[in-house]
Amino acid sequence: MLDLLLTSGADVLLLDEPDNYLDIPTRAWLEEQIRSCRSTILMVSHDRTLLERVATKIVVIEGAGCWVHGGSYTTFPEARAKRQEQLGDELKRWNDEERRLFHHMKMMKQRAAQNFKNATKANAAETRWEKFVAAGPPPPPVADQQIHVRLRGADAARRVARLEGVAIGNLFRPFSDEIHHGERLGLIGPNGTGKSHLLRALAGTVPPDHGAISYGPRTSIGTFTQINDRPDFIGRTCLDIVGERSFDDEKSMKALARYGLRTNARQGFDTLSGGQKARLEILCLELEGHNVLLLDEPTDNLDIESSESLEQALDGFEGTVVAVSHDRTFLAKFDRYLMITDDGGVYELPDYDVAMQALAAPGAVDGLRLAKSLTSPSA
Q1: What is the mean pLDDT of each run of 10 residues along the chain (379 residues)?
Q2: Which residue numbers delimit the ABC transporter domain (predicted)?
Q3: Is 338 exposed, middle or buried (0-12, 13-18, 19+ CB in 10 A)?
Q4: Do 43 and 179 share a structural domain?
Q5: Is residue 264 part of a domain?
Q6: Which phi and psi angles does 293 have, rounded to 5°?
Q7: Cα angle at 68 between 67 and 70, to 5 degrees?
Q8: Are residues 97 and 208 in the same domain?
Q9: What global pTM score does this model have?
Q10: What is the DSSP letter of 193?
Q11: Would 379 be classed as within a structural domain?
């Protein structure tokens, strides 16, 4: 569908989250198609890498209106910060002028009470103040929409998990690896190669079809599911779910407020939007205090501000993070990567640049200097 749209020759194309459900190689293809497309494109997206590479103008809808940044997403954060500062300065000047006009009016009325000759001036001062107030203040700075995540991991053994000859169905061949405390491990590869299946096996929700996974002492695992699959949350309110973990309504409300969910406190989980469900799941992970987090597409339903807040929290998290993601900005901060290929191979990749090279040319991953196969050819 995207291919047909982008080559249709239409004057204007409207694309609503075109990157949704696309793996990283397909997102790279989408970027090339957009760059070479002659149509004017209006696109909604939360993919920061995509926006950085293809957007030439940013239309921002926030607060009670919208504004335009005439540049790329790379320069947008600085432009928004300057705009926020400018809005604050303009509002302060308006408030200062309103106070000055009001005090001048009060002074003139006091003089008019003493000498009726000042009545005309007093009326004029009152009219100026009333007109100024009636025109209204300039728009205020937009309220901070970020969520405030506080992830704290308990202590764990140096080796969190050992995978020995693990395979699942025909998705990937048996491979072995170790995950250590404090690691940031990204699971990458094309759609349908078994990344989410491997994450569920690590979580212990489904056993591997071959091999075994063992865990170090004091390992406590928390999971975030790609489709917010939480049957234990269905039919329950946000306050009930959070209260089960904080044991205090006041603390629960404060926690919900940090995640932008205060007004949804008495709303049922099944009626929340995808983004609200994602934020609630992350809040629960925070309150549960796990030292290993298994995250399946955690930024998929989050807006950009919420994704950045999650990343900042993970930066300060002392535990281990294993994540499946196609969000390149999110993945860029990880320590190493396991890539599952279409033919069932599993490779260890030591850094982000090598991982992106492997995804761009999966058929040549064996030839990458630092790529290491974790499966044997005969497996």
Answers
A1: 86 93 92 94 94 94 89 93 95 97 95 88 96 95 77 74 94 95 94 94 93 92 78 88 85 89 90 86 86 91 86 86 95 96 94 94 87 77
A2: 151-368
A3: buried
A4: no
A5: yes
A6: -115, 125
A7: 160
A8: no
A9: 0.82
A10: S
A11: no
Q: What is the three-class DSSP state of 275?
A: helix
Going by C-beta distance under 8 Å and a sequence separation of 6 or more, which residues neighbour residue 133?
98
CATH number at residue 199: 3.40.50.300
- Cβ atoms of 310 and 290 within 8 Å: the answer is no
105: its two tokens: 């009016």
Inter-residue contact 142 to 348 (CB < 8 Å):
no
Q: Are strands 184-188 and 320-324 parallel, antiparallel or unpaired?
A: parallel
Count of the separate structural domains present in the chain: 3
What DSSP line would sit under 73-127, residue for residue? GGGHHHHHHHHHHHHHHHHHHHHHHHHHHHHHHHHHHHHHHH-GGGHHHHHHHHH
Asked whether residue 213 falls in the same domain as residue 289, the answer is yes
Residue 347 lies in domain: 159-373
Do 357 and 271 belong to one domain?
yes
CA-angle at 282, arms to 181 and 176, nearest 5°? 35
Residue 203 lies in a domain: yes
- The whole-angstrom separation of Cα 32 and Cα 55 is 12
| 90 in a structural domain | yes
